[in-house]
Amino acid sequence: MGSTNLQFYPRGFGRLHEIRKPDSCPMGVVSHSRPKFRCGMRNGPRKPLWRKKRVLSTEAIQAVQCLKLAKSSSNKLEEVFSGRLSRLLKADLLDTLAELQRQNEVHLALKVFEFVRTEVWYEPDAYLFSDIIMMLGKNKLLEMAEELFSELKKEGLEPNTRAYCEMIGAYFKMNMIQKAMETYELMKTSGCVPDKLTLTILIKNLEKSGKEELAAQVKKECTYYVDSPEKFLEEVGRKYPKPKLLDLV
User: Most buried of 15, 122, 190, 213, CB within 10 angstroms?
Assistant: First the structure.
């Protein structure tokens, strides 16, 4: 899609770090001898890998810069991954990935995402997947977003509200209203509760597309999912007013 020259392979299907231009070389990954461990309390819920934004460390900033400088050469990029990135701490590596996403460096972000998945501390994380799906949807890489969404179950995870929300947004980005509504229905039947962001995306895009009946249906369902639904709908209407229809004489 577009000018992004990427291919998406399923898990075990060449891995995302092998998404590259046809003339590039496989990326080397340095093996680690560190013991595998879990973070957090033994019996408590595991915190997501994805954390709130924070100030980037010098190491993360330098890693981003090196990756961007090396992206035109597969050999140089391989050196950065096998050298600088392999020495980053977990927090710095995740921050590097987040910053590449923020800068919309899709190709590099996908490579770092797969590199993260090879680390000894990595455990499947729905929040991490959701952010990558958001980036793909933003860039209209719908097929890749769908592939990654399906990867959640292969990793032993169930899509959460955020993952469904990002897929709904991706479908609206491509003006695929029926697929967006099908995903919304799948979200509800799976047991996930639509949040305010999901409902806002649905109402805004349905009204923008002139699908008043579907928008009214979603608004009605806000009663079940949102505290103070009237206040919520007023805020949505104020922030995203309906497009005005021109009277043609």
Answer: 15
